[in-house]
Amino acid sequence: MITHEELKNKALKRKDVREEYDNLEEEFSYLDEFLKARMGSGLTQAEIARMMGTTQSVVARLETGKGRHSPSIATLTRYAKALGLRLELKLVENR
Length: 95
Description:
CATH class: Mainly Alpha
Strand content: under 5%
Number of helices: 6
Number of domains: 1
Oligomer: single chain
CATH topology: 434 Repressor (Amino-terminal Domain)
Shape: globular
C-alpha cells in the first residue's frame, strides 16, 4: 500500500502538479498560521465558534481552506479576536 507521502512525492515529480502545489504555498502557510494560533491558545474549534457566534464546522473550514469561498476579512477578524489576537494584513513586494 502506498503512503500519503509517497503519493505526494510521486505527484510532485510532474511539472504541472509541482507548479500548482507551489502556487498554493502561500495559502497553506496562512492556514497553518491559523491552526497554530488556535492550538497555542488551548481552545477547541467549538469554543472558538461559540466566541465567534458561528458553528464548529465554519471554524474547521476556515482552518482547512475547504470552503467554497475565501473567508471575509470580518470573519478572519472575529477568529483572531476569539483567540485574543488581532488580524494584521499588509502588502509586501514580491521577491
